[in-house]
Amino acid sequence: MSERKHTLSVLVENTPGALARIAGLFSGRGFNIDSLCVAETLDPTLSHLTLVTTGDDLIIEQIIKQLRRLVDVYKVVDVTEEGEFVEREMALIKVRAEKETRAEVLRMCDIFRCKVVDVSPRTYTIEVTGPQSKLQAVIELLKPIGIKEIVRTGVIAMRREKKNP
Amino acid sequence: MTGAQMIVEALKREGVEVIFGYPGGAVIDIYDELYRTPEIKHVLVRHEQGAAHAADGYARSTGKVGVCLVTSGPGATNTVTGIATAYMDSIPVVILTGQVPTKLIGNDAFQEVDITGITRPCTKHNFLVKRTEDLPRILRAAFHIARTGRPGPVLVDLPKDVQQGKAEFYWPEEIRLRSYQPVYDPHPRQVEKAYRLLESCTRPVVLVGGGVISSGAHEEVRELAERLHLPVTMTLMGLGGFPGSHPQSLGMLGMHGTYYANMAVANSDLILAVGARFDDRVTGKVDAFAPMAKIIHIDIDPTSIQKNVRVDVPIVGDCKRSLEKLLEIVKEVARPEKIWREQFKEWWEQIEIWKKRYPLSYKQEGEYIKPQFVIEKLYELTRDKAQSGEIIISTEVGQNQMWTAQFYKFDRPRTLITSGGLGTMGFGFPAAIGAQMGHPGKLVVDIAGDGSIQMNIQEMATAMEQGLPVKVIILNNGYLGMVRQWQELFYERRYSAVKFQVIPDFVKLAEAYGALGLRATRPEEVEPVLKQALESDRLTLVDIHIAPEEGVFPMVPAGRATTEMILV
Predict the structure, then answer these.
(1) What pTM, to 2 d.p., does this model score?
(2) Burial B10-19 (b: 16+ CB within 10 A, else e)
(3) Where does the Thiamine pyrophosphate enzyme N-terminal TPP-binding domain lie (chain B) (predicted)?
(4) Inter-chain contact A16–B128, Cβ cutoff 8 Å?
(5) Residue B167 and residue B170: Cα distance in Å, rounded?
(6) Looking at this predicted complex, what is its ipTM?
(7) Residue B506 belongs to domain spanning
(8) Is B111 a catalytic residue?
(9) Is residue B128 situated within a structural domain?
(10) Which residue does chain A place closest to B178, by CA atoms?
């Protein structure tokens, strides 16, 4: 059985300790969390959590069942298994931008539709959103120019609606 | 109403009759309220671990929720072993812990500890109450979560200012938690599939686990087994879920299970597992477990299904309701008993051969008392009570536990109280106290080892104070016997740290507490001493000096296939 990345979408009661319970479930069983994003939903008593983890089918089945067993957890969906989905991540990248590279950085931003959100004489800070593959591509291209700092949010995901109902 | 008043009122409304606890600064307000509430009996233990185990023993023997009340900090941490024990065996217990005032939480205040953080992995759920007005709702939810679905321990942490605050008491009669909806009714199609497999198999085994006992499905198991003529084996937690003296019983399976139970499972073509979770002590090497069998697995907790072994027909639901549905089909189809009998005739012949070849056995000869002989004698002397459910046996953990599981025949559910999943030494005696509190009229016996009994022996004072006539039978071999047995078999007899240089004189110890102490050192003394203990109307400690190097057999070495038994 092969290991695969799974993106789980979890609805959980917005109570203190709920996140710790979920994180604890992973650490206590030696499962890894690749990425985790949490925020309130339209209903402020519920939080939505997007969790990316890696494992074979049996491990993922266990993870999902264990999550559902938590008293605070309202709903768990394995987005990866539910057909097509949209996935986005955001990163802030502070990149070195000296006289000879400033134009090059801006060109790159243009191509990838990034936004410059802060400018200093020696740096640009750019905002990039997209699927993980796009972020990875931007980072790889900016690396030779000189990345000073990166902050990434982790993935959020949503199922695509059926186009032909 | 003050928070403390609300807590006691909530306990009354939940039908709590007895609380096991130990006071301290952070729970004085609740204790003050209990002082005014004679209808709730409080049992003062000598160590908070004892309180947690006693609440657990009360819950296991009565089927009600056990309640334990302790103070913050060390009071709370002392219950952790008891909580983990209840969690592993799915026992409904509510643990109330005191906490420092909310404004001091996180300040390293005196006797502060993050007990909800500490117990998160070993409770079914836990709560930290932040506002007095939330108390009734949270306590209601705590009891509901503890006793429904797959039962388990729930901890409620109660800051001192929340206990002292005032608010209006609002009791929610109905409780609905949107994120917690256990499934009780099995999927009908899955039950049909299960029936079809039963109709087409030739070598079936029913595997009864603790879930049968907690859901009260023992009558259904028995009816199904008798109608279909199925052999039945039990896990340690399942003992009593099907009568051990029944001709279709194969006894316990697994590491110290019977030869015939393990052989039957290994050669079966269908396993009907009810409320059992396929623990590694049951399966042995998983890859070699029942290689030819299709598996039907009934469990209320979907997490248990497919966790350790592959399952062909998963049935998520309450064991009792699921078996009821299965029995409905059996009755509808009305296949004559003769046909079932015919279908499994050869299988039973094979099982009888295994039974004859290697029955559970030992030899009582020479000057040493064999522990198995003690258990058999105890069974002989209490057989009537065992069959009517008038005796409750608790055990400690280790060899004493396994000899009891092998040689005592548990016919009724909730008559064996033992720490299965966690294997907690020191569990049996406080659990016996809890069981005796729940069943004042029954005979309660704790079978102990000299190691285990010393882990919570201080609770003798508790038993004396409450006037509980618990009988403790110590199988004293001067060793940590089970570890010694492993060292003997797998570590070339390097007996590292398993022999106590000092063992107290248990008879004198009993007397020091005001209890009755008895001793047997020769085989012929066993019966009279047991009789005297069973007839005694007070706390009694029986120190029985057994053969020091006796082992528990059969044994499946850890990680081996269950067919690779050491029989000796």
Answers:
(1) 0.96
(2) bbeebebebb
(3) 1-116
(4) yes
(5) 9
(6) 0.91
(7) 371-545
(8) yes
(9) yes
(10) A74
